[in-house]
Amino acid sequence: MSEPSDVDPALDTALEAVLMVAREPLAEDRMAEGLGATAGEVAGALRRLAADYDGQVPGARRRGFELRCVAGGWRIYSRADQAENVAEFLTAGQTARLSQAALETLAVVAYRQPVSRPRIAAIRGVNVDGVMRTLLLRGLVVEADVEPVTGARRYVTSATFLEMLGIGSLDELPDIAPFLPEAADAEPGDTLRE
To answer: Which of 90, 77, 8, 3 is nearest to 44 (CA)?
Structure first.
């Protein structure tokens, strides 16, 4: 079977090589510039590769990895249905999970951003300095700006956070409303993204 005339096997191969070593999602224009191709050629090649990995190309089989566009760029990921196999392989005797306190703090940042440490501490009811340091070190949150009234630094989630969740934007976060206290229990002015 012959390939369509707009397919450039050399570009496909180069994109695969670059994507295999990428530590973060790569934007189409960045890959195009680095590989001497047009953004349109790269976009077409990425979509072809994604379809090939998904087994949607005649004669192709579905691979254990996929090519996804997340956080404004493309990256190769292991498939969600292979998570158990990957986890078993990677964690053989290791644990590098976030603590419950870190997960709760990260959720506050995700749904309230930009938000300051004092505000996070008020919402959680505990000191969050150590947990915030952990989240900053892991690159899940970043400093955004300074609160105009208090001068406190405010934080937002990072592209790494989006990447780890496998989402393209915060709009894809699940609805939090079912987990909130009744409206009568909420503080005036408190609104989480719904």
So the answer is: 8
Mean pLDDT for the stretch of residues 112-126: 93
Q: Name the DSSP letter for residue 126.
A: S
The two beta strands, 73-78 and 65-70, are antiparallel
Structure token pair of residue 35: 């590989």
Which CATH number describes the domain made up of 100-185?
1.10.10.10
Question: What would the mean pLDDT of 55-74 be, rounded to a whole number?
Answer: 94
**What distance in Å separates the CA atoms of residue 163 and residue 152, rounded to the nearest whole number?**
27
Pick the CATH number of 9-90 from 2.10.110.10, 1.10.10.10, 3.40.50.720, 3.30.450.40: 1.10.10.10
CA–CA distance from 41 to each of 18, 38, 77, 109, 185 (Å)?
15, 5, 22, 38, 54
Label residues 124-150 b or e (16+ Cβ within 10 Å = b): eeeebeebbebbeebebbeebeeeeee
What the block records as the tokens of 92 is 């053989």
pLDDT digit string, tens, across residues 134-154:
899 888 999 999 998 888 999
CA distances from 24 to 52, 77, 116, 148 (A): 22, 11, 27, 32
Domain ranges of the chain: 9-90, 100-185
> Is it the case that residue 184 has pLDDT exceeding 90?
no
List C-alpha distances in Å: 34 to 15, 24, 42, 43, 73.
10, 15, 11, 14, 14
